[in-house]
Amino acid sequence: MRRYDTLINPEIEGLLDTTESKFGLVVLGARRARQITSYYGQLGEGLGASVPPQITSTFRKPLSMALEEVSVGKIVPIELPDEPEIEEVVEAEAEAEAEAEVLMGEESGETSSENDESA
User: What is the model's pLDDT at position 7?
Assistant: First the structure.
């Protein structure tokens, strides 16, 4: 019986050990496959902006190459910091504006009693 290399080789169970979830594995493989595709697309142009495949592979498809790189350990996932919520950003900007107004008032020599009298 002839054995064909497919997406199942390397084993999915072994690949899941490198990531926290199946979704993380899919995203990691897809991003790396796009980088490999971009590399092969830029070969004739001499740009060198993309990272070449990190292993010598018998696979022809970029996704298979990417998953093989993950299984060998050449490509590892990194954890990006969470982006702050929009409300937190708005609150931080409001606090910064309030502090700037206080500092501007102190630099111009105004006091809070003068502001109360003019109102």
Answer: 53
